[in-house]
Amino acid sequence: MTSHLDSTASSRITHRHIEVFRAVMTAGSVTGAADLLHSSQPTASRELARLESLLGYALFERLQGRLRPNARALALWDEVQRSWQGLERVVDRAVALGRSDAAQLAVLCLPALAHALVPGAAARLLQACPHARLSVTPQESPLLEEWMSAQRFDLGLGEQTATPPGTQAEVLLTLDEVAVLPAGHALAMRPVLELDDFAGLPFVSLSADDPYRRQIDALFAQAGVQRQLRLETHSAVAVCAMVQQGLGVAIVNPLTALAGVNGAGGGLVLRRLAFSVPFSVSMVRPLFRAPLPEVAPMVAALRQEAAALLARWREMV
């Protein structure tokens, strides 16, 4: 069969033709395809032949009454499978949107908060709403603020003091940043650390474009205190891991420090600072995105977890 497919012929290929082709490939025969389609064997055979006629080339070799797909059929099968799976996902999503237990709460947060605040809040949410579904996306500023303004998420958690356009913000908690030290470090003997205490010590920093890094560097510069700045990273979690390995001391946000102390197996300690580097966590809600029923219990869970972290903080320092 010689190919002569043109735009007119291609426009006459219908979803039913592709459905018959898929059924034949799945069942391995026209008879089996007819059973899958709840149709008759002659009808399925006729529609398959019509598809080949419209395409202008054969899809199967006919051998002793059996069909064997050729290379073109196998290539088409790959494409059909991808499209069918995509369609099935669309259908599943459409059906799920009609079920009250299928909506997924989308939370956007800074990576540090995905590590230190959101897990506890998620546990509280699922305890209160066992059938809730939650998606957590870590993202740094300024994309976090841009995505919240675009109404792409149900809730956002960030450190921003200014409210992104199209949202409303609520401060969950405000604490000061803290020093993190390797267990057994000489400075661990002191309950509160001064700027001078860091003089000459290896210091693990956040990246140079981090606003907290700039604020901390400015404080040391104003005090004339020199540190050994050899390591830096974008992640406060990574800072704590490096400190735990004895690579230096650091100053990080209190939530990551608390999580690091709890999960470091005794390899990390934190100490208060005699100077203040405020750290605030804000909860951001979009103004123009219809709220899911799970938003209210998640807001309550975040408030409860923030209060619990504050209480734990006061016990430790």
TrEMBL record:
Keyword Manganese found: no
Source organism, top-level taxon: Bacteria
InterPro entries: LysR_HTH_N, LysR_subst-bd, WH-like_DNA-bd_sf, WH_DNA-bd_sf
Coiled coil start-end: none
GO molecular function: DNA-binding transcription factor activity; sequence-specific DNA binding
Range of residues in the leader sequence: none
PROSITE patterns named in the record: HTH_LYSR
GO biological processes: lysine biosynthetic process via diaminopimelate; positive regulation of gene expression
Pfam families documented for this protein: HTH_1 (PF00126), LysR_substrate (PF03466)
Assigned keywords, A-Z: DNA-binding, Transcription, Transcription regulation
NCBIfam families: PRK11013.1
The family this protein is said to belong to: Belongs to the LysR transcriptional regulatory family.
UniProt protein name: LysR family transcriptional regulator
Species in which this protein is naturally found: Acidovorax carolinensis
Lineage, highest ranks first: Bacteria, Pseudomonadati, Pseudomonadota, Betaproteobacteria, Burkholderiales
